[in-house]
Write a structure and sequence with these properties.
heterodimer, A: alpha/beta, seven-stranded mixed β-sheet, five-stranded mixed β-sheet, 8 helices, about 30% helix, elongated, B: mainly beta, 5 strands, about 10% helix, about 30% strand
Chain lengths: ~270, ~70
């Protein structure tokens, strides 16, 4: 009969049991998963079963790794997001966290753009490390994303984003994310993308500073193909800084809105 | 004339432009995105875009932080 072992097809004898398979194929494996659920006891296997056998802590081979990571993704979701391209303008507190979330679910291609380098003051909320201080954020983020999920293609652009280069940089994306810091840049990106790349949805953010209650951060529809996350009013200013928890909440609202759009669902 | 802004009806004096409306609402034109009758309005047209009876606008004012 045919089964899938670590996501690869395997022809086995009829009436093989889980433990017998383990002893033959992966002696010493101590993580046994059958059809998505951990199995503690021996059991007979049936045609079409998906069996995962690994040794705890063992580094899988690269083709095994992709299969094993895919196995964790929700069926029907992964196939769609893997084909998708998402643009992220700005990879600071919002953009770096959005990129990490989208890479973890296996979005196929991320186009990331930012003109800035990693600074110590970024580390209170942005997905970078102390040893990356001074690197262009897009390069540091690409390296981090590759460590999380090497099967995501990341296209970095290190430079200023303006009304001229938006269509060229982001014209091919399926969903666009506005993740800038400055209010006038946010307005520029929204105006330019929605005006020059018609028919494609954009998810922007405004109002996510400080430590006001989490549930004041909302996702709403703000126009045609235009979705807006945030409380709409809490600007970053002295005494109301940007911090990982609330910026992260907004970032994950945006990431979930992107996922819903890729799956053909309304974000709200 | 009556226009609709973010789902709420508002009486404004005619003639009016988008730029004049933003000024009367004390909004900074550099920090807003304006959708007029479901189409995004380029900033360059704020000054000359006249408003008509029944126009529907969505106006988002952005605040900094990201």
């Amino acid at each position: 009969m045919k089964i899938l072992l670590n996501e690869r097809p395997l022809e086995t004898a009829e009436a093989v049991t889980l433990f017998a398979l383990r002893d033959r194929e992966r002696p010493g494996a101590d993580v046994l998963i059958v059809n998505g659920f951990p199995a503690a006891a021996d059991r007979p296997l049936a045609e079409g079963d998906r069996v995962v056998l690994i040794r705890r802590g063992e580094q899988p081979s690269s083709e095994e790794l992709e299969a094993l990571m895919s196995a964790r993704h929700t069926p029907g979701v992964h196939e769609k997001v893997k084909r998708a391209t998402v643009g992220i303008a700005g990879v600071g507190g919002l953009g770096s966290a959005i990129a990490v979330a989208l890479a973890r679910i296996g979005v196929g291609r991320l186009v990331i753009a930012d003109f800035d380098v990693v600074e110590p003051s970024n580390l209170n909320r942005q997905q970078f490390f102390v040893d990356q201080i001074g690197l262009p954020k897009v390069d540091a983020l690409k390296a981090n994303l590759q460590r999380i999920n090497p099967y995501v293609k990341v296209a970095p652009f290190f430079g200023r984003i303006d009304a001229e280069n938006v269509p060229q940089l982001f014209g091919m994306v399926d969903v666009m994310v506005e993740a800038f810091d400055a209010a006038d840049q946010k307005a520029m990106l929204v105006e330019t993308f929605l005006g020059r790349c018609p028919g494609k949805p954009l998810v922007a953010a405004s109002g996510l500073a400080g430590f006001a209650p989490s549930n004041t951060v909302m996702t709403r529809r703000a126009g045609h193909n235009f979705y807006l996350v945030g409380d709409g009013e809490t600007a970053a200013r002295p005494g109301e800084g940007l911090m990982a928890p609330r910026v992260g909440i907004a970032a994950h609202h945006q990431a979930n809105a992107v996922l819903r759009l890729l799956l053909g669902e309304e974000p709200m | 004339m009556t226009i609709t802004i973010n789902g709420k009806q508002k009486e404004i004096d005619a003639p009016a432009t988008v730029a004049a409306l933003l000024a009367s609402l004390q909004l900074d034109a550099a920090r807003v995105a304006v959708e007029l009758n479901r189409e995004i309005l380029p900033r360059a047209r704020f000054d000359c875009q006249a408003l008509d009876e029944g126009d529907t606008l969505e106006i988002v004012q952005f605040v900094g932080g990201g």
